[in-house]
Amino acid sequence: MSNVCGFKCVGCLREFAIGEIENVCPNCGNNLDVVYDYDRVQAELTRASLAADRNFTMWRYQSLLPVESLSLVPPLTVGWTPVYNCGHLAERFGIRQLLIKDDGRNPTGSFKDRPSALAVVKAREAGASIITTASSGNAGSALAGMCASVAMESVIFVPASAPAAKVAQLQIYGSRLVIVEGSYDEAYDLCIAASERFGWYQRSTGYNPYTREGKKTAALEIAEQLNWDVPDKVFVAAGDGNIISGLWKGFNDLHRIGFIERLPQMMGVQSDRAPAIVDAASGDGVVRDAPAQTIADSINVGKPRDATAAVRAIRDSGGRGVKVTDDEIIAAIPKLARETGVFAEPAAAAAYAGLFKMLDAGSIKSDERVLVMLTGNGLKDAEAARRAVQEPLRVRPDYDELTRIWNIAQGST
Q1: Pairing between β-strand 176-180 and β-strand 265-271 as defined by DSSP bridges
Q2: Short-list 80, 98, 82, 95, CA closest to 339
Q3: What angle, 0 to 180 degrees and rounded to 10, lies between the N-to-C axes of helices 164-172 and 138-149?
């Protein structure tokens, strides 16, 4: 049995019973938050029971997820991605600890496998035959992969600007792909209208309340992987805002049931070419739509759909919104790879760029533990990464030519 006891609007705070509502709040149009019976959760879930659990996937936290059983879970292994302790970097940066959680290790290469896996379960519980989402690439690829694993049909709406690698993933998984000649926000609106017209199950972020529940599992893992001693600051890139709100909810769930003693500060990072959430968190709290033109496609959002909860996560945690330039994002990709061995796509590297922005400003204390959440694999958008590296040497298969060109190259470096 699920431990869900209802829903609460993140905007007007109106509460709803199970079965009374399906997606967004009918009163104000905001996203919904899933509410749990935490007394029942505490009775079921203990640190000891988790320590004995050999199911090293996101589903080990079933007591804190809105699923009736695990029988409808897709077979792909989602979650329990590694946390790396970068001690050499922490020493160089003059901080106590630097940790990196690499969600590019998920089956389709991104954090979005978590909410997509949960959405597939909820769609199957509802008896749906087709599930749809709007995506800049990763959410769609994740949904297509999860659907392929259970022979379910998916329809994915993406803007024409989506990276070729992500579009290829969608096609390879067999999704029905709709490329929209417009922005992500326009693709989102069209996807919502299509699902209402054709009766498809809607997975899109900020509309389906369960996406936050899938995303919070990364926070549950972080805490458990660190032996329930959470970092002081968590850096994460924000687009629609659903990831940072999900992580914040996960940490709060653990605090509510007594698994952790304190909560981390949430550091939301955005490009200065798509900064709606950061501007709101740093200003009057009001999210204003704005044009989005960043190279980091996964956070190229001008009308963030879970902005209210995202701004609240930053402010309530005592965190900050951090703006970085596209040049800083691109530069962070090889910097991250060469210093940690992890290749991240632009949106994921934005979180690392945000870390450096805060280090340069002297805003991280020497005794603080910091975690950077990496949300997508670099192969998702290798073309963007190539902008930050030199062209390779090109030679004929001739040793003398290689020697000459090599010596010239060495002299120029």
Answers
A1: unpaired
A2: 98
A3: 20
Of 223, 378, 239, nearest in space to 304 by CA: 239
Residues 173 and 175: their CA atoms lie apart, in Å, by 6
Distances (CA, A) of 103 to 224, 323, 343, 408: 16, 22, 11, 40
What is the layout of strands, in order, in the sheet containing 4-9?
15-16, 4-9, 32-36
Q: Is pLDDT above 70 for 1? A: no
CA distance 171 to 180: 15
DSSP 103: G
Flag whether pLDDT at 413 surpasses 60: no
Mean pLDDT, rounded, for 146-164: 95
The whole-angstrom separation of Cα 178 and Cα 54 is 40
SS3 226: coil
What's the pTM value of the predicted model, to 2 decimals?
A: 0.95
| Interatomic CA distance for residues 276 and 306, integer angstroms | 11
116 touches 43 (CB < 8 A): no
Determine the topology of domain 83-108+211-386 in CATH.
Rossmann fold (3.40.50)
Query: What residue ranges do the domains of the chain occupy?
Result: 83-108+211-386
